[in-house]
Structures are given as structure tokens and as C-alpha cells.
Design a protein that fits this description.
Number of strands: 11
Strand content: over 45%
Largest sheet: 4 strands, antiparallel
Strand order of the largest sheet: 1-2-3-4
Helix content: under 10%
Distance between the termini: 38 Å
Number of helices: 0
Structural class: mainly beta
């Protein structure tokens, strides 16, 4: 099952999160998978992924309570952040102009993250 979908800024592809612990970047014109992003755990909960920083990174929470950040083009993990203890980090949203993002977890907390400017 699909847990979230987000279109890229240019409108040519969509980021699709699924319950098999895989996020896929799919070409809208032909349905071809352009890239996949793995390392997080997503088998039971609706966890949303997002694109950030001008579509240069993919961000997603995980059932292990961490946040994962991948390079958009290469699909390699750039960062793993401890966020919500052992609870599910269920949602991530990014504000690219401010270089900030927010995560929400089943522990009842919302965390605002930021990058050095």
C-alpha cells in the first residue's frame, strides 16, 4: 500500500512511499522507477516522505523513530537523525527557503529542525 505521494517541483516525477520500507521516484510520463530510497523502516504505519531543499533531498520518518535524509539523485543516505526515541516518526515536512523541516511522532512531539545558514 501507498502511504504518501508528492510531485517534484518540475512536475515530471512523483515521490511514492509504500509499506515495504521503500520510497520510489517514479517518472510520470512512462511509470518507470527513476530511483529508490531505502534504510528506513515502514511496514505498519502511514509515514509521509517529502522532497526538500529545491528537490535536492528526500526526507522521511521511520518506525524506529529516526529521520532519514537521502541524496535525491544518487539515493544514498546523507543523514540519519534521532528524533522521537523508539516511537514512530510519522510525518516530515520541509520549508526550503528557511532551510528548516519539521517532524511529528507517535510520542506526541513535533520537532523543528534547521540547517546552518
Amino acid at each position: 500500500p501507498i502511504t504518501s505521494v508528492q510531485q517534484t517541483r518540475d512536475g515530471n516525477a512523483v515521490l511514492v512511499s509504500t509499506l515495504d520500507s521503500t520510497i520510489r521516484l517514479m517518472d510520470k510520463s512512462n511509470g518507470q522507477m527513476l530511483q529508490s530510497y531505502k534504510s528506513h523502516t515502514n511496514t505498519e504505519y502511514r509515514i509521509r516522505s517529502c522532497l526538500g531543499l529545491g528537490d535536492s533531498v528526500v526526507m522521511c520518518g521511520s518506525e524506529d523513530g529516526k529521520l532519514y535524509v537521502w541524496d535525491f539523485l544518487e539515493g544514498k543516505v546523507l543523514e540519519t537523525l534521532s528524533a522521537h526515541g523508539k516511537k514512530v516518526a510519522s510525518a516530515v515536512s520541509c520549508c526550503s527557503p528557511r532551510k528548516e523541516w519539521v517532524s511529528a511522532g507517535t510520542d506526541g512531539t513535533v520537532i523543528v529542525w534547521g540547517m546552518a545558514r
